[in-house]
Amino acid sequence: MSDLPQIRIVLADDHALVLEGLRALLSAEPDLTVVATATDGERLLDAVRRFTPDVVAMDLQMPFMDGLTCLRHLRSEELPVRVLVISAFGDAQSLRAVVEGGADGFALKTDPPEMTIAAIRQVASGRMVFPDAVRRWLVRSTTNDPNALTDREESVLALIAEGRSNSQIGVTLSLSENTIKFHLRNLFSKLGVTNRTEAAAKYHRR
């Protein structure tokens, strides 16, 4: 057994070849342990409840219960697990659905193996891992000024100035906490600040 902190993982994919390939890939890593696998969303939910893993690495296309529905169940039940979606589809609609569903990261099946392993470790450590397309979707603006705030960012900033938490802002705007985190990151960058207090101060000065 490795002395490294262990990251316990549940894998879910309806293709046995993909599932076994991922399991073999992760078994070679001393800090990654696959505690269960599932071939559909219902079995995945059951595995998460039984084994309480640190990370779920799952496909979107699964029988009985698809990945997005499963993701919503994981979040509504507030199961303490990070979720990395590994999909063959990197279209804008899928990416948006994954972010709004509350996933912690997204990787493509066509990514090099080392990128998938890195994504699992990053998600386990609390980082969000998404491709640039997600950032472009979240930051697109109706103006030509790259530092101009979008209407959504203005709403988030106003709520920050009221002292609201990420979860409170998410409830108010009907957005996932992950989406709020993205907006915060972009807000801080555009405003040239590093934290909520500085952002609120800028808002009040305006």
What do you see in this structure?
- The chain has 206 residues and is an alpha/beta fold.
- It has 2 domains: 7-131, 3-Layer(aba) Sandwich (Rossmann fold); 141-205, Winged helix-like DNA-binding domain superfamily/Winged helix DNA-binding domain (Arc Repressor Mutant, subunit A, Orthogonal Bundle), CATH 1.10.10.10.
- The chain has helices spanning 16-27, 41-51, 67-76, 92-101, 113-124, 132-139, 151-161, 166-173, 177-191, 196-205; strands at 7-12, 32-38, 55-58, 82-87, 105-108.
- Strands 2-1-3-4-5 form a 5-stranded parallel sheet, with helices on both faces.
- Strand 4 (82-87), helix 4 and strand 5 (105-108) form a beta-alpha-beta unit.
- Helix 7 packs across helix 9 and helix 8 crosses helix 9.
- The chain is elongated.
Secondary structure elements and their pairing?
Elements: E1 7-12, H1 16-27, E2 32-38, H2 41-51, E3 55-58, H3 67-76, E4 82-87, H4 92-101, E5 105-108, H5 113-124, H6 132-139, H7 151-161, H8 166-173, H9 177-191, H10 196-205
Parallel strand pairs: 1-2, 1-3, 3-4, 4-5
Helix pairs in contact: 2-3, 7-9, 7-10, 8-9
Short description:
The chain is of the alpha/beta class. The protein has helices at 16-27, 41-51, 67-76, 92-101, 113-124, 132-139, 151-161, 166-173, 177-191, 196-205, and strands at residues 7-12, 32-38, 55-58, 82-87, 105-108.
Strand content: 5-15%
Given as residue ranges, the uncertain stretches (5+ residues, pLDDT < 50) are none
Query: Which strand order spans the largest sheet, edge to edge or round the barrel?
Result: 2-1-3-4-5
State the distance separating the first and last CA atoms: 57 Å
Q: What structural class do helix, strand and pairing data support?
A: alpha/beta
CATH architecture of the largest domain: 3-Layer(aba) Sandwich
